[in-house]
Amino acid sequence: MEKELKLQVTAGKASQIMHAPAVSRLINGCADSSDLVSTYFDTPEMYLRKNGASLRVRAVGEQRLQTLKLEGSITAGLFERDEFESPVTGDRPDLDALLTLIPKGSKAIDILAEPNLAERLEPLFLTRVNRCAAILQLPDGTELELAMDDGAVEATAGPSAPIHGVELELKNGEPEQLYNLALALLHDVPLRIDYLSKADRGYGLIVQEQSAAVKAEPLKLKKRGSVEEGFQAIASNCLAQVHGNERGVVFGQDPSSVHQMRVRLRRLRSALDLFAPVIPAPADFDNELRWIAGELGKARDWEVLAGSTLKKAFDSAADDADGTAVQQAAQNIATENRKAAVAAVNSVRYTRLIIQFTLWIDQKGWRKSQSKQALKALEKPITSFASETLKRRHKKLLKRGHGLAELDDDARHRARIAAKKVRYATEFFSSLFERRAVKHYISVLSDLQDDLGWRNDVVVASDLLSSLSEAKPETAVGAGFARGFLASRAAADHDAMKALWKRFSRLTAPQH
User: Fold this and answer.
1) Crossing angle, helix 323-345 and helix 476-492, to 10 degrees?
2) For the residues 224-241, what does the mean pLDDT come to?
3) What region holds the CHAD domain (predicted)?
4) Which one in 2, 190, 213, 502 has a CA-CA gap of 20 to 30 Å to 416?
């Protein structure tokens, strides 16, 4: 199992890494420099890629080494995946030699069993890099390999792309040490999380691959588990979905990735708020999570306005509504905000945040400042904590939502936030309660929250249109028409919201 943290470094900055205090004091022996040429093979229809595998033959001088890698997990730049290597005598892969290394039951056996695979393989792209590598020996015995690659990936017929990467590979020890070293390096070198392997970059030159938006994975808590175990499972689940959408935000065009990453950050912040009485998080985490969520939020709000909202507003409008100017202006702003969101997710600041947070979860960082009494509270049953929390949050929502359909925008916004917190909490704890009761409660709550969310989108869109017409007078006519359209839809929603609230207010929160 390969465990490797991949980071990007600005061109020309790699030399700073070996001289950084965090690295220089750990180098065991001398750093070696070598030129590596790796040729990646696949079938014309990209059979290996479609099955989550990559296959290369690397040339180092006269030596040849073939490597088969399978898809694995990626967490904050940490790639964990199965890897199989063997020497080869020529420049093409030797699948029979690889098969002797692969254990029974591995997915790799099924992949390589494809009929006539060896004959169908052809070189698709290659990487040429100068690698400077060194072995790092940590005081606790952990051994890492640090490799800095400068070069390019080249399609066999076509374009190329630069490579300026830093790889920290775990030889022995715990993965947390990779993150600890990366954080230490960030003090001296502007590193960023690398979301792509070299194979990803090569295939990206050949075919336009879109990263699909990642939604929440089912979460199952242990009914006999502790509060601490429950928190760690919930926070890890939220964090996994954040990571799952980073790549789609940075490299994709689908607005859904921005939306899903924003939602997952909201869920993560909600989890921190939920457990704050027993597991207080450092204040910096909420500030930084709020920052990155805000960057994504601006992109999402303008993309929704420029897309579905204005399309609905002007689909049935008369020609004199003058929608062209406002639609184009909104799209231009949406594009700029998307670029800003990409830059934020691909920044040193975000890299530091996500590595620190991952370490805090994995190492139970909250324990360092807890008293014995507070630590004792973490051992209490998660079921009791969940029941008390849902009951309290349900009661708060009933109070904030009283007379919901008649509330002004600010009061309705506070009710929407309360509804969101209740829904997230219920989804976090759903596996602890009777399934039918939870399903009905979430269904009714979701309908209410969806309506509140839509009404909030109307308010946000109206504010954006108002600011747009002030900044660009040529959009005033179209923006005014769109605001009127949204106001009429909101007014028409009065009775529906009233009915949804009445339906929800009859319920009681799920209890253990």
Assistant:
1) 80
2) 94
3) 224-506
4) 213
Structure tokens, 427? 């989804």
Distances (CA, A) of 406 to 69, 401, 417, 493, 494: 59, 10, 17, 11, 8
Residue 212 lies in a domain: no
* DSSP per-residue letters across 218-240: P----TT-BHHHHHHHHHHHHHH
Domains identified in the chain, total number: 3
Helix, strand, coil % (nearest 5) of the chain? 55, 20, 25
State which amino acid sits at residue 195: Y
For 208, residues 6+ apart whose C-beta sits below 8 A from its C-beta are: none
Q: Which domain, by its residues, includes 479? A: 403-512
pLDDT tens digits along 238-270: 998 898 889 889 887 778 889 999 999 999 999
Structural domain contains residue 497: yes
DSSP β-bridge partners for residue 27: 136
- Find out whether 243 and 351 touch, Cβ atoms under 8 Å: no
What's the average model confidence in pLDDT over 114-127?
A: 94
Which CATH number is 57's domain given? Answer: 2.40.320.10
Do 361 and 458 fall within a single domain?
A: no
Tell me, yes or no, whether 293 and 325 share the same domain: yes
**Burial (0-12, 13-18, 19+ Cβ within 10 Å), 5:** buried
Q: What pLDDT, on a 0 to 100 scale, did the predictor assign at position 88?
A: 93
pTM beyond 0.90: no
Same domain, 142 and 234: no
User: Where is 163: in which H helix or E strand?
Assistant: strand 160-172
**Model confidence over 356-386: pLDDT tens digits?**
999 999 999 999 888 889 899 999 999 999 9
Instruction: Pick 124 or 80 by higher pLDDT.
Output: 124
Both 258 and 117 in one domain: the answer is no
Of residues 346, 364, 341, 351, the one with CA closest to residue 235: 364
Domain check: are 289 and 436 in the same one? no
- What digits encode the pLDDT tens for the residues 418-447? 999 999 999 999 999 999 989 999 999 999
Q: Is residue 371 part of a domain?
A: no
Say if residue 179's pLDDT is above 60: yes
390 lies in some domain: no
Residues 200 and 231 in one domain: no
- For residues 63 and 28, membership in a common domain is answered with yes
Co-location of 273 and 181 in the same domain: no
Contact 164, 11 (CB under 8 A): yes
